[in-house]
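Lay summary. Proteins are chains of building blocks that fold into shapes, and those shapes determine what they do. In this project we predict the shape from the chain. Here is one chain we studied, written as its sequence of building blocks.
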Amino acid sequence: MRDWLVGGAVIETDEGILLVRNRRRDGSHDWSTPGGVIEDGEDLLVGLAREVEEETGLVVTEWAGPLYEVRILAPQMGWRLRVEAHRAVVFSGDLTVHDPDGIVVDARFVAANAHEEHLRSCSPWVREPLMEWLSERWEMQRGFAYDVVGQDRSSMKVTRR
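And here is the predicted shape, written in a compact code that computers can read:
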């Protein structure tokens, strides 16, 4: 069973929330907040800042949170994932896409009336916690848990616990 730790960044301006468009291995695209896999032994916030800068060109120097934690279990695919989402409090730089992994192909600040449209095609464990936080703006960290059944992305069924 492979264990993944992922950091997610919630970055807002007057223009909206920052979302990145990801190109998946199967050629499909979806939108999410910036972030990614934290390397073994790497501090989560250091890794999250690294991922944000790699994907968007923005340099985050202060974080708040975590806002929420998401745990996903996909035993048939052989992985378990924990995501910790933090809000960027202080950041600088110009928004540019230069992801060394080639996954992020676009980045933009999305206005509140377009969040749902952009997030429709992403995984429920990405969409639901973010949409709920954007709607409620809670102060204390919340937890979310999902079970995934299926052998691959095209056949998987996701259930929220």
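What the prediction tells us: The chain has one domain: 2-160.
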